[in-house]
Amino acid sequence: MAPRIPQQGPGPRLFTWDEVALRSGGERERWLVIQRKVYDVTDFARRHPGGAQVLSHYAGQDATDPFMTFHIDQGLVRKYMKPLLIGELAPEQPSFEPTKNKELTEDFRELRAQVERLGLMRTEPGFFVLSLLHILLLDVAAWLTLHLLGTSLVPYLLCAVLLATVQAQAGWLQHDFGHLSVCGTSRWNHWIHHFVSGHLKGAPASWWNHIHFQHHAKPNCFPKDPNIGMHPSFLALGKILSVELGKQKKKHMPYNHQHKYFFLIGPPTFLPLYMQWYFFYFVVQKKKWVDLAWMLSFYVRISLTYVPLLGLRGFLGLFFLVRFLESNWFMWVTQMSHISMHIDHDQNKDWVSTQVQATCNVHKSAFNDWFTGHLNFQIEHHLFPTMPRHNYHKVAPLVRSLCAKHGLEYQSKPLLSAFADIIHSLKESGQLWLDAYLHQ
């Protein structure tokens, strides 16, 4: 039965939460609420700079906190929102949905205001200049290794390690600029994002924009988070989803062995066998010709650099070895903070609970910070995705206090323990699937 709509009088149209919830996407309209205002984003979604899906993930829900979190210049964004405004919540409607923790949300908003007053959202350009310079120096060192030491096995392998390091560190840097290149930032952020992602890595910046914001909007929420898109085709993830698969008698893979075959189909193959070709498919399908030009500049540069030294076969071998090493690095670091955490369908929890239950940290150290591109501070990064990473350690004590006050578990692990927990969680969820498959 449709919810009762309040009587409409002079002034803005008034809605209930139940009415908004009906416009949750699919073939229907998409509405969302921001600071009690109701917006119809049905037609705007396809023009949204962050991609249509991230809006759809909050359709029918309150999107106040992700809106405040993702957009740096909210005044600019609100100009685009004016035509989308269709009304507001009725006065008797609460400001918070019943599934969300009101006190926690209010405390987080106070914390965010404090963080802004402390200047922790401001970028130190010198940090990113040095980060980019160290990547470029590693790139030069890789070429010098072959040019000065020859192309025998040891220099060849050392060059591959250096180039994989360039790719990994460039990946963390483009991740930074991707978050800093949201609406309202200066255009140089956008161009540096294209340079680092396209010219240094051979990847489209727009792909990152459309995919990664979905992950931040609904982390570990199936099927909204693309980072867990390997469920259920390759892996059974989480205690809840794996049991669901078992009860439904679904067996796309022998999931009880997934902690073993993960080493074969996960880290080694993700970049060389999947993303390497998908990037080109994406830019052509989406007609992202600027991205394509930047990507081609990478392939031209690296070919002109190494084919004269190694020949075509030697260069292709080096290229795919680098992709193999980079893929392992990328997968272990990106999965260490998520795959062992809570995974479920979207329960429409408040922003803080959604982020904290899906993420964990890895202990701070000079090596961990560098090796992970500060993604060892995943909790802070997910709560404040537009915060420059050099400030994560400064906000961490405040976040830890917030979690302690509201009984949220703030997890931080040693690096190797975080890697091991990937395998442990896969083994556990695989066994849960098997038990449900055989006995329920």
From TrEMBL:
One of its GO terms (biological process) is unsaturated fatty acid biosynthetic process. It is a multi-pass membrane protein. Pathway: Lipid metabolism; polyunsaturated fatty acid biosynthesis. It is found in: Endoplasmic reticulum membrane. One of its GO terms (molecular function) is oxidoreductase activity, acting on paired donors, with oxidation of a pair of donors resulting in the reduction of molecular oxygen to two molecules of water. GO terms for cellular component: endoplasmic reticulum membrane. SMART domains: Cyt-b5 (SM01117). Residues 12-90 form the Cytochrome b5 heme-binding domain. Coiled coil: none annotated. Keywords: Fatty acid biosynthesis, Fatty acid metabolism, Lipid biosynthesis, Lipid metabolism, Membrane, Transmembrane, Transmembrane helix. This is Acyl-CoA (8-3)-desaturase-like.
